[in-house]
Amino acid sequence: xxxxxxxxxMFTAVPPRYDLINRLITFGLDQRWxxxxxxxxxxxxxxxxxxxxxxxxxxxxxxxxxxxxVMLTGVxxxxxxxxxxxxxxxxxxxxxxxxxxxxxxxxxxxxxxxxDCVGISFAFRNLTYKNPLAQQCLTEVLRxxxxxxxxxxxxxxxxxxxxxxxxxxxxxxxxxxxxxxxLSGNRQAYRYLAxxxxxxxxxxxxxxxxxxxxxxxLYFRRLFPGAAxxxxxxx
Length: 235
Hints:
Layout: H1 3-12, H2 18-25, H3 29-41, E1 48-52, H4 58-66, E2 71-76, H5 79-90, E3 98-102, E4 115-121, H6 124-128, H7 134-144, E5 145-156, H8 162-184, H9 187-198, H10 203-213, E6 216-223, E7 228-234
Parallel strand pairs: 1-2, 1-4, 2-3, 4-5
Antiparallel strand pairs: 5-7, 6-7
Helix pairs in contact: 3-4, 8-9
């Protein structure tokens, strides 16, 4: 089984408590970080935004709440995730201009220059960590962005402090792995989360990856103290 097939099986077997587990393992900070990323997505105001690997639609819903009139599209390759995203968007005022589409990040089902902004929240790691299709995914993001369009990423990261980094990795491999496994019943998924997050790239390495892919005018900022980061790249 390839790494891509392995991830596909994990994320189509989405546990019923997926959103709850995310809140618990981040102490609710994941939603705060998504709101900060959404502000980057909406400045300057775009007309069309893509939530890439949208999962259960957490970022899409926040974007819909923060700015009316934006055409929002979520794409994911997990039908169970998309079903939840549609349910959540249907219950939120302002999300009426949201649509959710089944698709693969390595072969996005959109024409060139389709979106003013592409956002991704806590799924960029899945596209780029030991993924043989990582370069193809980045090429697809560039293709569907309009010239001058933004790629906004909020993702787990590596604290700059060696001491904090050691505690963070311990937290991932013990607390996150055991709590996620217990609540979801899916040890494989949360073992992958803990290992991939603890071994993931630093913000500087992500920046170099995006430059190599063809993006320009990049910047990032660390969040809480470096456990996550927001990256902004311009086409």
